[in-house]
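Reading is simple: each integer encodes one residue's backbone shape. The lines below illustrate:
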Amino acid sequence: MKWARQRMTRWWNSPETGNPAEEESLPLGRVDRFGPWLLVALPVVYALIMLRAELATAAPPNDSAVHHLWVEWAADQFRAGRIPVDGWVSNLGFGVSQFHFYQSTPHVLSGAIEAITGWSRVVNFTIYFGVSLWPISVFCSLKRLRIGRWGAAVAASVSLFMLSQDGHGLEILSYVWRGRGVWSQLWAMWVFPWALVLTWRSTQSGKNFGRAVAAVSLTACLHLIQAYMLFLVMPFWALIDPVSLKAVWTRVRRVAILGGVGFAGALWAILPFLLDAKWAGNSEFNVGTFYVNSYGFKQVMAWLVSGEVLDAGRFPVLTLLGGAGLVTALIKARRSEAHRVPLVVLGVALCLWFGRETWGDLVNLLPGGDGMIFHRFVLGVQLAGLMLIATGAEGIAAGFRMVTKRLSKTQTQLPTSAVAVGASFAALAIAVGPMNAFLNLNTQWIREQSAEDNVMNTQTTGNWVAQLVTTAKDRGPGRYYAGLMSSWGAQAAVKQTPFYNWIPATMDVDIVGFNLRTFSLTGDSEPRFDDTNAAQFNLFNVRYVIANPSEHPPTVPAQKIKTVGQVALWEIETTGYLDAIDIGPTPISATRVTLARQSIPFLTGQDLQRKIFPAVDMGYGNPLPPSSAYQLPLDARISDELVDEDRGTYGASVSVNRDAYVLLKMTYHPRWKATVDGQQVETYMVAPGFVAVPISEGTHTVRFAYQSVSSYRVLVPLSALALTSTGITSTMWHGRRRRQSPSIDRTEQPVTS
């Protein structure tokens, strides 16, 4: 016991490792240099083999469908000679300027690749290689924590085998075909660990400033949730080692510069969203649910202790390794700043993951806290878990070295490499089995889906639906309907993929039913679509219905156009994307959350039948139109419809017998510009969130065009200038410091007794 106390005291009081630059330049033996890479190679090879089916063409049944759709939209913009940093995406949610409301950088880059190469499986490619090779990023970033190369290798070797109860973390099930489909998160998780480590090291040493800024900017461009956590963690780097007030103030300045320049580097991606956030939808269907409230302290801690954050549904082997790392970090944190880093990341991530369920309205004090999706911060807890696993592996190795040195008569110590390999193999032996079972099933499902998607085989559902959509396209533009997610739409499917997923992702058309997937202001009206109300079919321009004729035929007047196999196409008469309407005397007052609910009386009442629309007052000072003088019945004719969805342009020739309004059946945004007979006119917002303009008696040519954010022309060069100047300045400054610093004599010195 005396020996154990002495060893623990020595370990507790061991000084923090020295200068990181000197440490990394020290020579390594072959085992320590190349051995960790063999551990990293294990999950990489495993994933490259087990995820091969992800490269197949199979319509996804999850949110990957919208990412396929948006990448295709970006590719079309590039082919047309336009840069798709903004534009009108009409396919979902009655249209939305999605690319500046969402982290669209992955879609823009993937769209560019598709436009250049003509390869339509860029999303599949990024999922396959992005997931399979991620352990390399984990190892290369975590070893810079200066906790140990072998510990980082152990963390990397198990990084693909994390399983959480929530299922939205940095885990393989978040990305594969039958997983969650959070594809944008995949891009940022390559950079996020680097951003955390590099910002800490740059704050500590004042070095590698350019790399840290680049990592911050790239994280912010790729994924807002990971960037949000990064910006909340960074201030703690200034307080993590409060040796003196002067040192803290120096670190505060470094953090401020890192955050400020990093934000400037991502300004083009963030600022338009911040300035336009009031026109982004905030779904009331998320209010009071775990999506925004998260799970609270009690549930999160129960999952953490029971292993449901890293080892859901199996023996908690990764949790035990992380627990060993937590103990090691708590012990070593007294003397080692590097061991405080995982504790800071874990603490911030847990506080965010507790969410509104724990903190209540206090979360509104955070920037954007009123609309933050707090349950997604499980990803931060899992990343902290990997840091602790690396720490735990090194701690276990240190413990074994103490024991073997004490017990061995020859004073031989068990090397860290042996302990790391043993820990990695033990963890993988337990974790591989459940993962194998799921991935084998995932592969089987992909093959079945790919076979049923085959449009060349006349016996497949994919062929039947593709024929019907092609027929409908030839008849003219309009939205499609194949059931709602909350109704029979979930049963109408091509194998596992519902029609409302399959049709827009595969055939690139507008659809009603795949709802709550965008930031559209009118998005919450989509789940309330009543397929027994003919007036709503016209309101939303739902012109085509695709369904099994024996199970879900339309209940409103419709003409059956074609039947192929077990699926039929119906056409319903609408006025197209434009209509002539009146505006009633009483506007409705609404917010981003309540707009759809406030529109319910209109959607279900007689005013919709009579085409008398209430104006909408959002409280932003948006202009309200004067009401119509509709004593005389409105007689209108819409002809010569113009629809250019790629450009966000709609128009028609409209004839009316008196003054009225023309309705565009697209989500309102102030950047909709309208002309009547070539003269620009004011646009107004009417229920349930569409666009309207006034016209006088007679025949007029009416055009609507979405005008993209013009500030991108300034913001993109500014961001590029910020990053370039930072890189040049950092390189010149470090070069000057190297020239001024004395050279270090690294010749081997004889060991004296």
Notes: The chain has a mean pLDDT of 89. Residues 144 and 341 are 12 Å apart (CA to CA). The chain has three domains: 35-56+134-441, 461-571, 578-706.
